[in-house]
Amino acid sequence: MVLTGNLVGQTEIKSDGDVFHELFRDKPHQISTIAPTHIQGCDVHEGEFGKVGSVLFWNYFHDGKKKVAKEVIEAIDEEKKSVTFNVIEGDLKQLYKTMKITVHVDTNGENNLVTWTFDYEKLNETVPDPKTLMDFCLDITKAIETHHLTILLGIEMGLTGKLFAQVEIKSDGDSFHHLFRHKPHHLSKISPKHVQSCDLHEGEFGKVGSVVFWKYVHDGKECVAKEVIEAIDEEKKSITFKLIEGDLLHSYKSFRFTMHVDKIGEKHLVTWTLDYEKIHEDIPHPTKVIDLVLSVTKDIETHHDLSPIINAY
């Protein structure tokens, strides 16, 4: 019996292919927040994320058991959007003499195809082909897709940072932008578990320089935020709010929210961008704030028809 093998699994995703690739290349430690039932942790043991030759250590749950794996990032191909991991220690080495795992994304128009490839050599002929491991990787891919790849791309420079989150909506993009620009006070009707109110303190809704005051629930607590509408771009369907008072400023020296809508063919993609500066390095990056704004986005999507609200006076 041949001990070497090659196993390939594929699944189509609606999420952006570049974002998916960057998650596995630069932010694999964030997969535990996306697929916690499968991945419990990913730590750097040598080098740094996104660099060939670096060593990562994974804690994961596979075939009903807690397992570990130490892997070297063997190759990164930006053109093919691929990352190859070579397993050098861990539970898989009890079954396989060698195991290399490659994940890459092919983009064809609006379609993105994720391909997982295992190249392996079994220790003996009684060892099964790693089909359950392939199911495991495909399940993680689906979890990322379900999470809409909030995934959590970030740029971190000391205490300052930037987080991006994207989600596709079926609602009309113009109506979505109009809601946040002119009718944010209606969000409490659409997403009452998250937003209790949005009141105008200065100016008028939809005007740069105006001040709005939010009451909302975040991380299980009632919170407030006073924000200035800092910028509006009709062409990009974007609006930026700058936080000037409120609970988040207990942890962050500065905080800006930007929401914009892109139309790609018949699809509408909502992108949230958080620009922030932490008060000190022990403050976590605001991934839970990303979860909050995405939950509100999903509530708007569930609401479907926004026309009665958009047309209300």
Largest sheet: 8 strands, antiparallel
What is the succession of H and E elements? EHHEEEEEEHEEHHEEEEEEHH
**What is the radius of gyration?**
22 Å
Q: What level of helicity do the residues show? A: 10-25%
Main β-sheet, spatial strand arrangement: 8-9-15-14-13-12-11-10
Q: How is this structure best described in words?
A:
It is a single chain. The protein is an alpha+beta fold. It is built from seven helices and 15 strands. It has helices spanning 17-26, 31-34, 131-146, 173-182, 187-190, 287-303, 307-310, and strands spanning 4-13, 39-46, 55-62, 65-77, 82-90, 96-108, 111-122, 153-157, 160-169, 195-202, 211-218, 221-233, 238-246, 252-264, 267-278. The strands form two sheets. The protein has an eight-stranded antiparallel beta sheet. A seven-stranded antiparallel beta sheet has the order 1-7-6-5-4-3-2. The chain is elongated, with a radius of gyration of 22 Å. 28% of the residues are buried. The model has no long low-confidence stretch (mean pLDDT 89).
